[in-house]
Amino acid sequence: SFDDIVLEAINESLISIFGEEPARSVNFYIDPNIALTDAEAYVKALRRMFMEGANVIVVGICDRISQLTGLGKSGVSSLGEFIREVRGRYVNQDGDSRHSTDDGTLISAR
User: Are 109 and 99 in contact (CB under 8 A)?
Assistant: First the structure.
């Protein structure tokens, strides 16, 4: 599911930035599931912990979501906006996992 992609992107981004054990600690103190329902609250928690360093984490998460979905990044200004936009392009109304190519053609990711 798209939620699994977001959680995987968060975890992989934290591991790539901090390593396995510190990433586990971050996930203990800041539940990544928060990002699924309120990405801005998740970013706010990251900022409380890492201050401006949170921006590096957010960029990493967005990059990884783009890689996992095959959808390019757009000029969105927040993690929440990015997740909403990519979710809308990734999941069609039937719940099938799909994404579109640059010309708008849908490709199934089953």
Answer: yes
Q: pTM for this structure?
A: 0.78
Sort 108 into a burial class: Cβ within 10 Å, 0-12 / 13-18 / 19+. exposed
Structure tokens at 13: 């981004």
Q: Are 97 and 110 a contacting pair, CB within 8 Å?
A: yes
C-alpha–C-alpha distance, residues 41 and 88, integer Å: 20
Check: CB of residue 35 under 8 Å from CB of residue 83: yes
Q: pLDDT tens-digit profile of 56-70?
A: 999 999 999 988 988
36, amino acid identity = L
d(CA 40, CA 94): 27
